[in-house]
Structures are given as C-alpha cells and as structure tokens.
Amino acid sequence: MKMRRFAAGLLGPALVLSTPAFAQDAPVATPSAQQSYWLVDADIAADPDNVLLLDLSNGGRVAIRLKPDWAPGHVERIKTLARQGFYDGVIFHRVIEGFMAQTGDPTGTGEGGSQLADLAAEFNQVPHLRGSVSMARTAEPDSANSQFFIVFYPRMSLDRNYTNFGRVIAGMDQVDVIARGEPPASPTRIVQASLASEGKPRPDLASPDRGETTVDMLNAPIAE
C-alpha cells in the first residue's frame, strides 16, 4: 500500500482548504424527501455503468451518478477501484458537520491510497453543491488517487480547485447520518461499493452501527 504524506497546517490530510472559507459559506435548506422511486430507478437504468452504489454500515444505500463528461479519468478510476472491491470495508475517516464526508483510504488515516498512479487534475466548472461527489487531494493539484468526499452543503471555495466527478441521486439522507469525526469514534463504513451494472445484491450483514440485521433495511426502496 502506498502511503501518502499530506501538507501540514491545513484542514487535515487529503483535503487542502482553510477553516475561514467554510465559515463564510451559509448552509442551504435540505432538499425535500419527495423524490419518486420510479424516477430514481429510471435514472439508474438509463446508464447503470455510471451509477456507483454504496451500501453503508448504517443500513443505508447511496446511489451516485458518475459523470465521465465532467472528469473521465477520475470516473474511470472510481469504477476500476469499485470493481476490484477496493472500497469494501473502508471507513468514512473524516466527516465534518456542515461540510463533507470523506472516504476512500483503506488505512483509515487519510494518508493512504491505491497502488495505482496519481491522477492528473480534471478541474471543471461544475459547482460543489449539496450531494456533489469530488476527489480529495494534497496541496499538489495532480495528487488525487482513491479518496473522495460527499458535500453536505454548498462550498464554492472548492470550485475549480477539486475535481467534481459526480452527484448523489438517491440516499442523501443516509449520507446525512454518517458518523462525524476526524476520525469518528465509531466510523461508518462502506460495506460494499459496486456499479449498478454489476447487479450485486445488497449485503446481508449485521450492522455494527445499529447492532441489528440490515437485510430488511437494505432491501427497502431507495429514497432521497
């Protein structure tokens, strides 16, 4: 496993931003939970090879629409690692209230990555809004590897500085309840990451977060 050392004196490893920038961004209202199941299903069915499904240890499932037209290299990296099972069992190691939830480091420290080469930056014009999925990196622009984060609230300071490669299309309510901390005392894990095109069943596991069987929860319809 290649270990990575990140710039010190910033907001922590793998996501280089200053604290004042966060405080200046006002939260926005949480979107309505009225998204229809058929709309989600249709969106997934339209391009299942570009939908990343995250089954979480809190019993939830998150569907992420990958956007190769925004960042083709980053999307291909996420898909490659997901097919390899790289993200299975990985924790959300850095979760900041009102900002974002970061994962993708198998060491759980924020200093790890995959054995694949770092990616060239693909900064784009897509804003970092609630539900945006973007790649973490060090102070060097071309240093993204496997770690990514999901944004809780808009952060304009991230725009054109981090590679935005997708958006949550279902299960944002499950992202909202990911355990907070750097790292959390009892971190939420990705039990299984897969592409919708793979057709993998949801895991039938005991949830360490809830202490109960998740089979019924994981088989429930996806809801925003």
From TrEMBL:
Signal sequence interval, chain numbering: 1-23
EC number: 5.2.1.8
InterPro entries (alphabetical): Cyclophilin-like_dom_sf (IPR029000), Cyclophilin-type_PPIase_CS (IPR020892), Cyclophilin-type_PPIase_dom (IPR002130), Cyclophilin_A-like (IPR044666)
Matching Pfam families: Pro_isomerase
Reaction(s) the record says it catalyses: [protein]-peptidylproline (omega=180) = [protein]-peptidylproline (omega=0)
GO MF entries: peptidyl-prolyl cis-trans isomerase activity
Keyword Signal assigned: yes
Domain PPIase cyclophilin-type as annotated: residue spans: 60-212
Region called Disordered, residue ranges: 194-224
PANTHER family linked: PEPTIDYL-PROLYL CIS-TRANS ISOMERASE-RELATED (PTHR45625), PEPTIDYLPROLYL ISOMERASE DOMAIN AND WD REPEAT-CONTAINING PROTEIN 1 (PTHR45625:SF4)
Function: PPIases accelerate the folding of proteins. It catalyzes the cis-trans isomerization of proline imidic peptide bonds in oligopeptides.
Name of protein: Peptidyl-prolyl cis-trans isomerase
